[in-house]
Amino acid sequence: MVGVDEVGRGCLAGPILVVAARQTATLPEGIRDSKLLSRRQREAILERLTSNVEFGEGWVKAAEIDNLGVASALRLGVKRALSALTADIREVIIMDGKVNYLPKRFRGGVCMVDADNLLPIVSAASIYAKVTRDNFMVKLAQKYPEYSFESHVGYGTKIHLQALDAHGVIKMVHRTSYEPIADLLVAGS
User: Fold this and answer.
1) How would you label 21-43 residue by residue, b for 16+ Cβ within 10 Å and e otherwise?
2) Closest to 102 measured CA to CA, from 120, 122, 128
3) pLDDT band per the 50, 70, 90 thresholds, residue 130
4) Half-sphere exposure of 177 toward its Cβ, with a 13 Å CA cutoff?
């Protein structure tokens, strides 16, 4: 079975990361939806997961999200993640969520609401995705410290919106098709 989850869909900045996970050995205790774990818990669990799970990453850049729209960007991310994992079309694939973004050739693929909390292999994908994308955003914060990406990881928090007002939009980082980014670009032109 392959578990699939994503992180970053609702962010104003940074990529979407879709992760496909396949169990290769017994999973460690404490696995559940990454949103229910602290940063420290996620990182500790991920250290134990890497020897028991194979992961495939499907990164979708902000510019791709803007060009494709979020639904097509998620489909692209899922395709990339499954390809990176070398998933077989005969495998059972469970994706977290209401909408099935799996390529049609994966006939055994289904989506399930709350799969990231109900199925440990989807939880593993959730944890890996969250830790990996958060770490990416921390590195981005080193390049653009005035935006505090390390604290909000691209979500539309008060701190992030204040930074946008003060410093403007970073075109290769921010999703220019998302509100309020699109409005800021129009106002600035």
Assistant:
1) bbbeeebbeebbbbeebeeeebe
2) 122
3) very high
4) 13
pLDDT at residue 108 in the model? 83
Rounded Cα distance between 62 and 64, Å, is: 5
Rounded to whole angstroms, what are the CA distances from 78 to 6, 38, 160, 164, 173? 8, 26, 28, 30, 21
Residue 188 above 80 pLDDT? Answer: no
Q: Taking residues 87-108, what's their average pLDDT? A: 92
| Domains contained in the chain, CATH given | 2-188 (3.30.420.10)
DSSP string, the chain: -EEEEEE-TT-SBS-EEEEEEEE-SPPPTT---GGGS-HHHHHHHHHHHTTTEEEEEEEE-HHHHHHH-HHHHHHHHHHHHHHHHT--TTS-EEEESSS--S-TT-TTEEEETTHHHH-HHHHHHHHHHHHHHHHHHHHHHHHSGGG-HHHHTTS--HHHHHHHHHH---TTTB-TTSTTHHHHHHHH-
